[in-house]
Amino acid sequence: QDITTLEQNIGRLEGQVARYKNAAENEEKVEDELKAEKRKLQRELRTALDKIEEMEMTNSHLMKRL
């Protein structure tokens, strides 16, 4: 009876390990996707800031010409 109980515990624990492993892998995948999205957004932000700076310089130049 003790052996049967221990074997059941082993099976339950192995199931938990498998679920935790799958959860960890999924979380790593989500983390990688979030990091990629963050890099993309940072690139877009830099591009937008560069464009703003360029437009401000153009505006300044045009204001001086006026």
UniProtKB/TrEMBL annotation:
UniProt superkingdom: Eukaryota
Coiled-coil portions: 3-58
Keyword line: Coiled coil, Wnt signaling pathway
Protein's GO biological process: regulation of DNA-templated transcription; Wnt signaling pathway
PANTHER family referenced in this protein's UniProt entry, alphabetically: LEUCINE RICH REPEAT IN FLII INTERACTING PROTEIN, LEUCINE-RICH REPEAT FLIGHTLESS-INTERACTING PROTEIN 2
Entry's family note: Belongs to the LRRFIP family.
The protein's name in its UniProt record: Leucine-rich repeat flightless-interacting protein 2
Organism: Chloroceryle aenea
Gene name in the database record: Lrrfip2_1
